[in-house]
Design goal:
7 helices; 21% helix; binds pyridoxal-5'-phosphate; 339 residues; 17 strands; single chain; eight-stranded mixed sheet; alpha+beta; D-amino Acid Aminotransferase, Chain A, domain 2
Length: 339
């Protein structure tokens, strides 16, 4: 067995022992299969390749101090994948089957779950693909649902540090009534050019405005946005953002800490009134935002001048991580222990 350097994992792909697969044929889902190959063999006419009939999910498994593996809110990922299926006309996988597949693939790759001390986790990546020999634009008749796992390092290698983000008015991620609310690959393809531009300019990510009026905050590429003003946790309500499970969890935690949660349209101008701002998602939990530059309008909103995250962001981050790793009581029943 090869040695894994747990403390130097990146957010990249490492081959693990097994993945699990389940095909949808003749109107029903088949048995869960186990594979040790990290390639798939699909027809060149598959709808996922031509027309983007594909969805994915991302969740993590954490090893606690007690050595037990914990998965965070997988029922939410299962339900969100069903919503993605409805959105792009794929069959819905029952929640129980999704959870069974997660349990199975994690169990089979137990040796890849990073130890508690590393601060790393096992990333779980479910995907669903439209298959079949097809040229016409219509939903496929056959589908593949599969999950692979790969160990990933802590997102913040140099610690929990704020970064700068850019508003690039020349790009949209998702249309107001388009596919922004579901987790499909096409949204990501649509965000690559803007992401690359932001990186070239020295920013960690793009903060998207609503595509119609370019007035309200949408989200930060692959993560939701939140701001803190006084005792309020404020996060955008929009018809083109993906409902982040991390954001949903942070809203619950903020409320339980006695904060007021506001989920509503957030005009860009309001950024000037926030003491803290962050992006949230499974990969990093919270990425604190140091500064947001609206490059086309020559405006800048600064949230951190000392290179440190704000106190509320830090408190929320620590609390959620503590629940995920089993360091604190799971009072909301978010964690399932895998055995
Ligand atoms: C996955 C995703 C998020 C984060 O969702 P989590 O469930 O918190 O990981 C945010 N925005 C987009 C566009 C996403 O695809």
């Amino acid at each position: 067995m090869e040695h894994i350097d747990w403390s130097n994992l990146s957010f990249g792909y490492m081959k693990t022992d097994y993945n699990v697969r389940c095909y949808y044929r003749d109107g029903k889902w088949g048995e869960l299969e186990v594979s040790s190959s990290d390639t798939i063999n699909i027809h060149m006419g598959a709808t996922c390749l031509h027309y983007g009939q594909e969805s994915f999910e991302g969740l993590k498994v954490f090893k606690g101090q007690d050595g037990k593996a914990r998965v965070f809110r997988m029922d939410e990922n299962a339900k969100r994948m069903q919503a993605s299926s409805r959105g792009i006309r794929m069959p819905e996988l029952p929640v129980e089957q999704f959870e069974e597949a997660v349990r199975k693939v994690v169990k089979l790759n137990e040796r890849f779950i990073p130890p508690y001390e590393s601060g790393a986790a096992l990333y779980v990546r479910p995907i669903m693909l439209g298959l079949g020999a097809q040229v016409g634009v219509s939903p496929a008749k056959e589908y593949l649902f599969m999950i692979f796992v790969t160990p990933v390092g802590p997102y913040f290698k140099e610690g929990f540090k704020p970064t700068a983000m850019a508003i690039l008015r020349g790009y949209d991620r998702a249309a107001p009534l388009g596919t922004g609310t579901i987790k499909v690959g096409g949204n990501y393809a649509a965000s690559l050019a803007a992401g690359e531009k932001a990186h070239e300019l020295g920013y960690s990510a793009v903060l998207y405005l609503d595509a119609k009026e370019k007035k309200y905050i949408d989200e930060c590429g692959p993560a939701n946005f939140f701001g803190i003003r006084g005792n309020s946790y404020i996060t955008p309500l929009s018809s083109s953002i993906l409902p982040s499970i991390t954001n949903k969890s942070l809203m619950t935690l903020a409320e339980s800490m006695g904060m007021t949660v506001e989920r509503r349209q957030v005009a860009e101008d309001e950024l000037a009134t926030f003491q803290e701002a962050g992006a949230c998602g499974t990969a990093a939990v919270i990425s604190p935002i140091q500064r947001i530059d609206d490059l086309d309008e020559n405006k800048s909103y600064v949230f951190s001048t000392d290179g440190k995250p704000g106190p509320i962001s830090e408190k929320l981050y620590n609390k959620l991580r503590a629940i995920q790793y089993g360091d604190e009581a799971d009072e909301f029943n978010w964690v399932k222990i895998l055995d």
